[in-house]
Amino acid sequence: MAEKLKLELVTPYKKVLTEEVDEITATGALGEFGVLPGHAPFLTSLKIGEFAYKADGRFFHLAVNWGYFEVEDDKVTVLVETAERADEIDLERAKAALGRAEEALKRLAAEDKDFRTYEAALERALIRVQVAAKVARK
Q1: Over the stretch 68-111, which tens digit does the pLDDT of each residue have?
Q2: What is the pTM of this model?
């Protein structure tokens, strides 16, 4: 059994990271899951959520936006629309986006064509605030 996982996280715009890691947690379509070295192969979809990994005894956090997660032979490939490291997120901007999405949802009915758009914006902003706050507390 390998002692590390090789992690590659990619967006349509760039390769965000390639690293040897000890463990990974992510938010899948069915909930949060974790992966350690020696994990059985699998493929799942990711939803808007927090992505965390441990390397060299430290945890690192990212906010990710929809994608796919594959494990095979201790190699983890993550393809997502966007990924932001916790220390790159502007907390005040994320809070402002959260407020705008909340206000828009208050004015819209669930049947409105823009309701799902603002609902997703709210979810993205909330995750960004939560992930950014992890760095702010340190």
Answers
A1: 999 999 999 999 999 999 999 988 888 998 899 898 888 888 88
A2: 0.85
Cα(58)–Cα(74) distance, integer angstroms: 20
Stated length of the chain? 138
Q: Residue 79 carries which side chain, given as an amino acid letter?
A: L
- Torsion of Cα atoms, 71 then 60 then 20 then 7, to 10°: 30
Locate 130 and state its tokens: 């939560």
**What are the structural domains of the chain?**
5-86 (2.60.15.10), 89-136 (1.20.5.440)
State both tokens at 108.
């819209």
CB 107 within 8 A of CB 119: no
Token couple for 10: 């990619």
Helices 91-107 and 115-136, packing angle to 10 deg: 150
What CA–CA distance (Å, rounded) separates 31 from 14?
A: 26
